[in-house]
Specification:
The protein has helices at residues 12-34, 40-56, 61-81, 85-102, 105-113, 123-152. It has 153 residues and is mostly helical. The radius of gyration is 17 Å and the shape is flat. It starts with 11 loop residues before the first helix and ends with a helix.
């Protein structure tokens, strides 16, 4: 049997973790909005819940939604705290670490093939998913290293 037709395992732990974090951020974000705080955590929770659902059904958009969410979190964290590394780390590193999970070959394969063989429509996703997520992770590490070097000066 060819490797391309072997069934792939559902990334259920990753999907469950994203959905659970999404629910936590939705409830916490709603409470924060009710107290007059930032609505970003509510939006983050909705995005993580959607990522968890898309990951559960093995839709290729799951990794891209998570990457966009992580990028928006990075932008929000920089606008919120500037380039202060100690303030950026708790805002960005947990999502970036979880995002590395999406770059694993097994997760990529599960998201690219889904329940049935992926058609030509998702061929570009299969081709660029791993390298794109890897470059995003490398970019994040480079930004963190630059920020730390500025702190040491």
């Amino acid at each position: 049997m060819s490797a391309s037709f072997e069934p792939t395992r559902r990334p259920s732990v990753l999907a469950g973790l994203c959905a659970l974090l999404g629910l936590v951020f939705i409830f916490g974000g709603a409470r924060l909005v009710a107290l007059g705080g930032s609505s970003y955590f509510l939006v983050l929770g909705l995005a993580l819940l959607a990522t968890g659902i898309l990951t559960w059904i093995r839709h290729p958009a799951a990794a891209w939604l998570f990457a966009a969410t992580t990028f928006c979190t990075l932008v929000w964290a920089i606008t919120e705290s500037g380039f202060d590394a100690w303030a950026l780390l708790p805002r960005v590193v947990p999502l970036a670490t979880l995002g590395l999970w999406f770059a694993l070959p097994g997760v990529q394969r599960a998201l690219a093939t889904g329940r049935r063989p992926a058609g030509a429509m998702y061929a570009h996703v299969r081709r660029w998913l791993g390298p794109g997520l890897f470059l995003a992770a490398v970019l994040l590490v480079v930004v963190v290293l630059i920020v730390f070097r500025r702190l040491k000066r």
